[in-house]
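This entry is listed below:
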Amino acid sequence: MNNFIINYSSLIWIGLILTITSQIIVSSSYSKYKKKLNNKDLTGYDVARKILDKNKLNDIIILETKGNLTDHYDPARKTIKLSTDIYHGSSIASLAVAAHECGHAIQDKDGYKPMRIRSKIIPTLYICTRIGYIAIIVGAIFSYKLTEIGIIILLALLAFQIITLPVEFNASKRALNELKTNRFLDKDETKDAKNMLLAAAFTYVASMLSTLLQILRGVLIFADRDR
């Protein structure tokens, strides 16, 4: 049993490496483009407000929030929260992130289906995810039935992450279109913004792959029970 657990624990390490690598890529990309200021001296707030107003989303409030890259759009409260560096910053990274969150607001306005589906399942997802990981780990040692439950819960998480991918990529596509058509950035700056957003999107891909590996580990544990 010990050797069995050790063999399958390698999948956990692969998932962990994927997650850490994705975070390093995002942090490195953000640090790089945080140093590059846009030629028009616009802040993240400026761009976000202009994009929202242009798309007749004047009712959406933009707030400053603490933390690093804690930026997000809240569809329930119709609020965009930008971290301090993004809110006040005039870097390529600031404009890219601010425009991305506006992309989510535009999705909400347009009734983008993947986003609506994701919003509906978010409330129960956090608890289910924790239970799923614990069930697989405990099940590998004590009860295969728990492993089966963990697999089912993590499959729900995987479905959520699969839905998240088009939501995030589409928001970035909308963001780049806004930055380009409104001439907030020139050609080279738009290319930098695209690279920044692609790096951020990789974290979602890595998370999905990590969850897939955890599910595979659980399936292998469950399938090996009769050996």
